[in-house]
Amino acid sequence: MKEIIVEIKNEQGVHARPAGQIVNIAKRYKATLEIEKVGENEIVDGKNVFGVMTLGAAKGEKLKLRAVSENEGNSEEESKLLEELRQMIEIDKFFEK
């Protein structure tokens, strides 16, 4: 299991399109993705668009992303998943202005 904390950088936060982008990336990996808004105790399935949207993450808020591989020994897959998500969320800002 690996986890990182990312900050939402795009102006609109995690609405339907960014939630879909997170899910599309997560579904390319066998690892489970759990997402939690920092400061809250609700954990959602990162492969479920409605779950991701329910977090209501706005610009400046932080999300804890946790990847858990099925065999619990594939840390390379976990790292790749989390780094791809970090890049899209913090650097590319969901490809929004």
Rough shape?
Answer: globular
Distance between the termini: 33 Å
Query: Mind telling me which CATH architecture this is?
Result: 2-Layer Sandwich
Strand order of the largest sheet: 1-4-2-3
At the first level of CATH, the class is Alpha Beta
Determine the CATH topology. Answer: Histidine-containing Protein, Chain: A
Backbone structural class: alpha+beta
Q: Helix proportion of residues, in percent?
A: 25-40%
Number of strands: 4
The SSE string, one letter per element, is EHEEHEH
Radius of gyration from CA coordinates: 12 Å
Count of domains = 1
Main location: cytoplasm
Protein name: HPr family phosphocarrier protein
Keywords: Cytoplasm, Phosphotransferase system
Domain HPr: 1-97
How would you describe the overall organization of this protein?
The protein is of the alpha+beta class and 97 residues long. It has one domain: HPr-like (Histidine-containing Protein, Chain: A, 2-Layer Sandwich). The chain has three helices and four strands. It has a four-stranded antiparallel beta sheet. A hairpin with a 5-residue loop joins strand 2 and strand 3. The N and C termini lie far apart (33 Å). The model has no long low-confidence stretch (mean pLDDT 95). InterPro entries: HPr (IPR050399), HPr-like (IPR000032), HPr-like_sf (IPR035895). This is HPr family phosphocarrier protein. Residues 1-97 form the HPr domain.
